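Final report, closing paragraph on structural work. Over the funding period we assembled a curated collection of sequence-structure pairs, and we close with a single example.
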Amino acid sequence: MSKTLFSALTQALGQEVMAIAVKTNFGHDKAGRQCTVMLGKTKAFSLYDDGWAGGYEVQITIHNQDATNTLLSRSKTPELLDMMATIPGYGKIETPFTDHMVQVEICGVLIQQAKLAKETKKGIVVGTEDAFGSYTWKGIRDLADLVKIGGGLVGLQNTYNKAKTALKPGQRILNPESQLLALGVKL
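Its predicted structure, as stored:
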């Protein structure tokens, strides 16, 4: 599998980096998003995009300059900057990425991680880290609840099998194998 900006930036940031207070899909064009980026237990910075069309206006609030500088230094490697420069909308830019632009990309990746974690908890998720869909059940917030219902494990296994056979090239099932095995799914 080729390295994507998502996987490269996730690896560069490290496991102690996460987004909290994630909110998406609000505002006039439903492109609004907000989150606070944490480095360990320290708030580094927050992003707020109001989701109104007509301009690229994203507000960044710095909570801790040292933590923010640490994240920026991890993210501004030549490899990552080259990958960011090919993102649709940026084109192949000639000017250096500003800290603001890199912070927006960090938030984008962390928000995507949060969405992926939420989806894998309640369904079988297929695709790539950048674009995925899920098979879910109405009224089920956690797959563990599904397997407690009579016939739930059979339904989960059938859905897993269906998802696995429907994968397109480059796609995979994104649920952690440990999660699925713990639920009783045969991989």
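Residues 99-122 form the longest helix (24 residues). The beta strands are 17-26, 32-39, 42-49, 58-62, 123-127, 132-136, 172-173. We thank the funder for supporting this effort.
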